[in-house]
Amino acid sequence: MLAINPFAALPATIPPAVMQAYVVAMIVLVAAGTLFDILHKGSARYFFDNWRRSKGRARNELGSGALASIAVRTAVVDVLASGEFCSARRRVAHLLTMYGFLLYVVSTVVMVFSRSTSDIWPHLWWLGGVMVCVGGYWFWFFIRADVAAEGNSPLRLMRADLFVLSLLASVTFGLIWAFLQVNGGGGAMVFFALYILATTVLFGSVPWSKFAHMFFKPAAAFEKRMSLANGTRANLPGPADKPEQFGSARTAPRHY
Prior knowledge:
- This protein is mainly alpha-helical and about 260 residues long.
- The chain has one domain: Fumarate Reductase Cytochrome B subunit, CATH 1.20.950.
- The chain has helices spanning about 15-40, 45-55, 65-80, 90-115, 120-145, 145-150, 160-185, 190-205, 215-230.
């Protein structure tokens, strides 16, 4: 089952060109939604304004070598290793979801356009989907700030949850559909329709969800590291020599 391309096993009523056109449409929706989000919220203008202000108030001049070093640390620590998360559980869940999503999307595109059933891409598709489910459901039920720290119900829904919920729905319905499709189970096309619906919501709701944050966060992390290196610290005070301790020294606070 894990070696079979489920998209190649679709009925003849859904020709390859239709699925390929759908994938292209989703890519266009992500690009258009991200561009709209940038223009609507002014994210790019905010970033470049901060960049200019930071350079104007810099106490330490940063050369090209220092900027390159900051860029490398940002890519390795903040992007590839999700270094902004202090909690080990939150970081692991985020890394599982992030790398699983990348594997899942890339292998989906390859399988839809190649229709191959004899290479490693189906294995990577299943692996990526399982990683998304493990990291995403772990985060949703046990790690979310409003659940772990504030005691709210894990079933409480907000618009900010649109990205993670549509992602989990897309991957979950996709895996169920693929299992039924490959094994000849009934109801496969019902779950395929739910899979397409959830995927359309995931990629079509970029302006209203946190999807575009994956493109903004590296730039924000780079600007933060640069402000620390040039001494401006984004107008924030430096760390205290003896920071005040809140709560009991015997019990670690549960915060996000």
